[in-house]
Amino acid sequence: MGEVSKQPSEGGSGGKRGHSNMERRVYNDEIKEASRRKRRKDDDAAAEEGLEDAADERQVPGAP
To answer: In angstroms, rounded to a whole number, what is the distance separating the alpha carbons of residues 47 and 23?
Structure first.
């Protein structure tokens, strides 16, 4: 039988990719907080639009 290699068959990134450019002017927590605020604002706008669409659908045909 042949020897079993204990090394990975391909030289992968090992989870390092995407973290090489971490030098930025704001902290990660600030970015996360801002994105949460934006998501909530977008969700509120979508809910408001859905309520308006539902109200439009309930109107009686022929009514002003």
So the answer is: 37
